[in-house]
Design goal:
213 residues; alpha/beta; 2 domains; 6 strands; elongated; disordered C terminus
Length: 213
C-alpha cells in the first residue's frame, strides 16, 4: 500500500499516512495515461484556424499578361498560390479536434496519474486548511513548511474552499481544486500534490466521483 507524508494544519510533520486503495492502487498504465492526456489537450483546441484558397481570395480575375510573346512564363491569375497575396494550398480550415474517451479509461488514467505521483514521493497529506479569510502569506508559509515552496503545486481539497482559492491566486505555480474535479492532466501537470485529509476520507467512504477529463 502506498503512503504519503502527513502534516498538521500548522505544518508540523507527523507519521506517514496510508493512501486509500480506491485511488492509489499502485498500478500505472502508461499507454492509457498518454491517450487520455493527449485527448484532453486536443479537446482544448478551438479549431478556428482558417485560410483562403485561390478560389476564395478576391481579385485576380484577369489574365496577368498575354499568353505568348512576352518572354516570361505564362500566368493566369495573380491569386495563384505562388503569387504574393495568392491563395493558400492545403491550409487549415475550421475543424473539431475533439476525441472521445470512455469513462473507465479516464478513471484508469486518473488512478495511474495519482499512483505516479505517489510512487515518486510527490504526495503530501495535510490535516486541514485553517484559513478564515484570504491570506496569501499564510498559505505560502504553510507550503514552505511542508517542503512544497517553489514547486508546481496542486492543492486538492474536500469540496470548494473559497478562502484557500483566493489566498493562492497570487502564488505562481499553485492551483487549488476539489479532489473530485482533478483530471489525469491536472495531476501530471503538477510536481507536488497536497491533499486534504478529509478528501481522502471521502474516497474511503465511497463518495468520490470521477469527472470527465
Amino acid at each position: 500500500m502506498l503512503s504519503a507524508r502527513y502534516y498538521s494544519a500548522t505544518g508540523e510533520q507527523g507519521e506517514a499516512r496510508e493512501l486509500p486503495l480506491e485511488l492509489f492502487d499502485g498500478v500505472v498504465h502508461e499507454a492509457v495515461l498518454h491517450q487520455v492526456i493527449k485527448a484532453y489537450l486536443a479537446n482544448q483546441r478551438q479549431g478556428t484556424a482558417s485560410t483562403k484558397t485561390r478560389a476564395q481570395v478576391s481579385g485576380g480575375n484577369s489574365k496577368v499578361w498575354r499568353q505568348k510573346g512576352t518572354g516570361r512564363a505564362r500566368q493566369g491569375s495573380t491569386r495563384a498560390p505562388h503569387w504574393r497575396g495568392g491563395g493558400i494550398v492545403f491550409g487549415p480550415t475550421p475543424r473539431s479536434y475533439h476525441q472521445d474517451v470512455p469513462r473507465r479509461v479516464k478513471a484508469l488514467a486518473r488512478r495511474s496519474a495519482f499512483n505516479t505521483r505517489a510512487m515518486a514521493d510527490q504526495v503530501s497529506v495535510i490535516e486541514r486548511f485553517d484559513i478564515d479569510a484570504p491570506k496569501t502569506r499564510q498559505v505560502a508559509e504553510l507550503l514552505g513548511k511542508i517542503g512544497a515552496a517553489g514547486k508546481k503545486v496542486l492543492i486538492l481539497t474536500d469540496g470548494q474552499n473559497a478562502n484557500l482559492f483566493l489566498s493562492t491566486r497570487n502564488l505562481p505555480n499553485v492551483r487549488v481544486m476539489p479532489l473530485r474535479e482533478a483530471s489525469a492532466y491536472d495531476v501530471m501537470n503538477a510536481r507536488e500534490l497536497v491533499i486534504e485529509a478529509a478528501a481522502l476520507d471521502s474516497i474511503r467512504a465511497g463518495n468520490e466521483e470521477v469527472v470527465n477529463a
